[in-house]
Design goal:
Elements (H helix, E strand, L loop, with lengths): L12 E4 L5 E3 L6 E13 L5 E10 L9 E6 L6 E4 H6 L5 E2 L4 E2 L1
Parallel strand pairs: 1-6, 2-5
Antiparallel strand pairs: 3-4, 4-5, 7-8
Length: 103
């Protein structure tokens, strides 16, 4: 997911079962963004690392009826990711099958 892609709108989020945190490269989506207190690096599937620049939250929208907390700002991402494990750890049930996906 390295590199920036101009063909994917900032409003598109992918649900990712491997992502450790919610993250985006679109700082305009984040509210109350603060710099990370210590350097944080996200490791990708190919072994490369990406720096987390700050942390914020995403307000409810047409995409989500809930506020998404602890969203990492990672400039090098090509898409925004919702972490299924972080949703689950926050108390949400995540159910998906071949034809249905529910949070």
């Amino acid at each position: 997911m390295l590199g920036s892609s101009s063909c994917i709108p900032s409003s598109v989020w992918l649900f990712d079962s491997d992502a450790s945190h919610h993250m985006t490269s679109h700082i305009s989506l984040l509210q109350n963004c603060i710099p990370t207190p210590v350097p944080i690096t996200i490791n990708t599937a190919n072994g490369s690392g990406m720096s987390v620049l700050s942390i914020g939250y995403v307000l409810p929208s047409a995409m989500s009826a809930i506020t998404i907390l602890f969203v990492l700002y990672v400039l090098q991402l090509s898409v925004s990711l919702f972490s299924l494990s972080q949703l689950n750890a926050s108390g949400f049930d995540v159910i998906f099958s071949f034809s249905v996906f529910c949070v």
